[in-house]
Amino acid sequence: MTYLSPAKINLFLHVTSKRADGYHNLQTIFQLLDYCDEINIDYRNDGVINRISGNEHIPKDQDLIIRSATILKKMTGSKDGADISIVKKIPMGGGLGGGSSNAATVLIALNELWSLNLSKEDLMDIGLNLGADIPMFINGHSSWGEGIGEILSPMLLPKYFYLVVSINKHISTLEIFAHKALTISPVQRKMSDFSLVSNPHNDCLGAAIDLEGEIEDALIHLNSTEKHIDKARMTGSGSCVFVAFEKEEDAIIAKKELPIKWLGFIAKAIDKSPLCNWDVAKW
User: Fold this and answer.
1) Which site among 10, 99, 121, 167 is 20 to 30 Å from 136 CA-CA?
2) Facing residues of 40 across strands?
3) Taking Cα atoms as reference points, which of 251, 281, 283 lies closest to residue 268?
4) How many domains are contained in the chain?
5) What mean pLDDT is reported for the chain?
6) Residue 96 placed within a domain
């Protein structure tokens, strides 16, 4: 079976406080996009979890695809295995959630393939041990997120077309959250505020620009495009940036004007993950 593993962007990201466990409490909106990696999974009856192709530059013990399958097998005592391959489209290390999405997809698929019958909540708990964004992808809805990103309220959002730009630079999330330029926004917003008064700012932006100034160049360029909606923004802890358009043809024109040194793609906002259309994702 081949499964689509979608990207996300953060329509805003406020860091509200630092927690005693070293993590930070956040408020954000996760917007799912129809831009996806493709993951193929074949059943094995010998208990082996094997990466067939894709992610070759990542050591297997650091690959979230393999780690998620391994921890699921360990926690459930399953004797089954799988051959897993991936075709990557989502830029890595840019705040688009590709690795988290891949891990969530593997957990959902293997739960069905191995007949584990775990609930969605069980899978979300397992995923949270691997990454804070994973529960959102398992839940499968564009959402208002709080806590470290695991407290989720599904949202219906405008079906904009987004031009997403990668400057082909990776920024460490740990560096961002330890950086002196990280902004703290202690005022707690309500979900209803977003369309009215919520500040769409990303509190990680100042730190990210300090570490990689080209992010600011990309934002300035996107803000210079015609017929876009609102201001260009950065997703997650960086380094990818995006801007919204009502019409796909306007996004296409803007993409053609990108400097060749940057990677750009156009994606449409979606309310539900493609996995919600699969039997494996019906709870």
Assistant:
1) 167
2) 2, 85
3) 251
4) 2
5) 92
6) yes
What is the separation of C-alpha 2 from the centre of its chain, rounded to a whole number of angstroms?
19
- The length of the chain is 283
How confident is the model over 182-196, as pLDDT tens digits? 988 876 777 766 664
Q: Which of 8, 83, 3, 10 is nearest to 43 (CA)?
A: 83
- 275 pLDDT exceeds 90? no
Contacts of 196 (CB under 8 A, 6+ apart): none
pLDDT tens-digit profile of 240-250? Answer: 999 999 999 99
Q: Which pTM value belongs to this model?
A: 0.93
Give residue 37's pLDDT: 97
Give the residue ranges of DSSP H helices in 129-172: 134-139
Q: Dump strand ranges (E) for 147-262.
A: 151-154, 161-166, 228-234, 241-245
Do residues 173 and 148 both lie within one domain? no
- Torsion, Cα of 264, 96, 7, 253 (10° steps): -20
Position 281 in a domain: no
Tell me the per-residue pLDDT of 36-76, one tens digit each, with 9 for 90 and over: 999 999 999 999 999 999 999 999 999 999 999 999 999 99
Query: What residues are labeled active site?
Result: 8, 133
Do 33 and 138 belong to one domain? yes
Question: CA 72 → CA 80, 118, 129, 140, 152, distances in Å?
Answer: 11, 10, 11, 19, 22
Q: What is the CATH number of the domain that holds 128?
A: 3.30.230.10
Judge if 77 and 211 occupy the same domain. Answer: no
